[in-house]
Amino acid sequence: MTSDEDLASMIRDCVDREVLEVALPAGFAERVTAGARARRRPRRVRWSVGLAALATAAAVAAGEFVLEPPPVTDPVAGPVASPAEPRELLGRVSVEEFPEAARTGWIQNDSRADRRLWMTEHRLDGQRHPVQIRVFSGSVTLEGVTAEYRDAAKATEARPVPAVSSGEAVSWRDGGLRHVVLQREPGLVIYVVTQDFSPAWPVRIAEGVRIG
Prior knowledge:
There is one protein chain. By secondary structure, the protein is of the alpha+beta class. It folds into 2 domains: 3-62; 93-211, Protein Transport Mog1p, Chain A (3-Layer(aba) Sandwich). 33% of the residues lie in helices and 24% in strands. The chain contains 5 helices and 9 strands. The strands form 2 sheets. A 7-stranded antiparallel beta sheet has the order 2-3-4-8-7-6-5, sandwiched between helices. The longest helix is centred in the first third of the chain and has 35 residues, at 28-62.
């Protein structure tokens, strides 16, 4: 006998004892058992949900669920440009402003093995300071030469020179001198120092430097 049949039998016995003369309508016991089943079903559902919640909590406490951050992928690094090899400068530098520069210039001693430095000086009539031209080749940049030769305590700010024929250039003043650094291309920097009476002149000198 099932639990529903036991419950129906108990109801009939109780009714028989308490209300002997009352006639029960047809299907009364079935409606009662059906209502009992309907009332018990939510309890089973809630119990199932409760068991599921307890099981989840137990699993978390036991360490079965581990929340890990997504793997971090390293950004793809772009190609790194290798520094330019120092060029041979002796006898190969020409300056349009001073045609004799190739004959009078020399390789200046440089403690760095990854660059070469060629230099010439020209003293002009009426000028106290000679025109100095330095040509750097190899692992060298405009920013590096500017930082190396500009005296930040005495010089003005290094400002970009607009409309150079090629590359980029900066200029600053230091007392009565004008300094210009021109990077024509990677691995080639020209540095010119003149008296500060014509800002355009040292730029023209730097732009006129050629490597044969």
